[in-house]
Amino acid sequence: MKNITVLMGDGVSGEILSCAVKVLDRISQIYNLSFKYNYVPIGGRAYEETGFPLPNKTVEACLKSDAVLLGAVGDWKYDNLAPELRPEKALLGIRKKLNLFANLRPVKVFDELLFASPLKSEIARDIDIMIIRELTGDVYFGEPKGIITKQTLDNREIKVGFNNMIYDEDEIRRIAHVAFKSAQKRKKRVCCVDKANVLDVSRLFREITTDVSKEYNDVELSYMYVDNAAMQLIQNPRQFDVILTGNIFGDILSDEASTICGSLGMLPSASLSDGKTPYLYEPIHGSAPDLAGKNAVNPIATILSVAMMLNYSFDNKLACDSIYRAVKEVLKEGYRTRDIFEKGKELCTTSKITDLIIEKLR
Ligand code: IPM
Ligand code: MG
Predict the structure, then answer these.
(1) Which regions of 82-204 does DSSP assign to beta strands (E)?
(2) pTM for the complete prediction?
(3) Three-state SS for 268?
(4) Which residue has the CA at smallest separation from atom 8 of ligand 1?
């Protein structure tokens, strides 16, 4: 029996999570597995219920479980809350509390969705990139940070905002190992993306990554500045296998990479720790409050997140592949949610496409 904590967030989160759980239930029948779900609130939902976006009880539930599944958090109605109470704070908080330093964002394009990519099909075809984003450091968490006032030379008082882009050697080393190990199972190439022409922190990132690469002779390491990487992702995305990068660059590049696959609604993610705390799985898209309750959102990113869970937390590659195969077959047969709709195909609701995927599982 595996215990899964399901973090119920905002917007469409309830809908997509229930689809993912339905898929897991069918998988458990086919593969003779047993899952128990514990639903706890996070983000705006938790704020409404308890006054805090990340209540202790939510953290404790996660720590006790074998894996964590998260919908998405955030809603415009919380935009004016104090920074500490905003739903996004809960997301950063749970990443830190569970020590989820390695964020894996696979960027793969399904042939059936090439039309939806803003890139020409001949450029987008066969994109298969693994973005490995460091998730618990960088400007996201660096101290000191804040907004203070200072006196100018001409005696005016003005505000100054600052964050600290900071990485220590240990943090870089552990994420680099994740990247090289991942590359060993793929096309054996790692591209370290940074801003080493300007930033000291990036120079250290490169230095340590180069050092770690010596333990992986079978993997080829290259380097690229982040501005160039943003361009290369559009011009020639197939050159990439594993992209290793820091928290903020990874945040930006993974959104860019996702859109070249046709829809943000297709991409899953896994956040891994050193193994002492459970891993967390979530779609990379947001909570889409405008779509909430309409049975119209694309559940595939969350369904594929569950596939990643089966692979990384429960070591069941067969079950993971079964979900990917089912999704592919459903797309091939012409079923589409709104975000990936194309003339001549059949428009499906969230629940309909989930049921179709479930029928294909074996
Ligand atoms: C992501 C999101 C988050 C991040 C936000 C919502 C805090 O954009 O998971 O990519 O910046 O990490
Ligand atoms: Mg992001």
Answers:
(1) 102-108, 128-134, 146-151, 157-162, 189-194
(2) 0.95
(3) strand
(4) 251
Q: Chain centroid to CA 190: how far?
A: 19
Cα(251) to centroid(ligand 2), Å? 4
Asked if residue 311 lies in contact with residue 317, where contact means CB atoms within 8 angstroms, the answer is: yes
Q: Which of 272, 291, 314 is the last residue of a domain?
A: 272
Decide whether any atom of ligand 1 lies within 6 Å of the 256 Cβ.
no
**Residues 12-65: tens digit of each pLDDT:** 999 999 999 999 999 999 999 999 999 999 999 999 999 999 999 999 999 999
- Average pLDDT (132-153) is 97
pLDDT tens, 95-138?
A: 999 999 999 999 999 999 999 999 999 999 999 999 999 999 99
DSSP assignment of 309-355 equals HHHHTT--HHHHHHHHHHHHHHHHTTEE-GGG--TTSEE--HHHHHH
Q: Are residues 259 and 119 in the same domain?
A: yes
> What is the per-residue pLDDT for 156?
97
Specify the residue with its C-alpha closest to ligand 1, atom 11. 251
* Domain membership flag for residue 86: yes
227 is catalytic: yes
Name the residue range of residue 312's domain: 1-100+275-362
CB 110 within 8 A of CB 331: yes
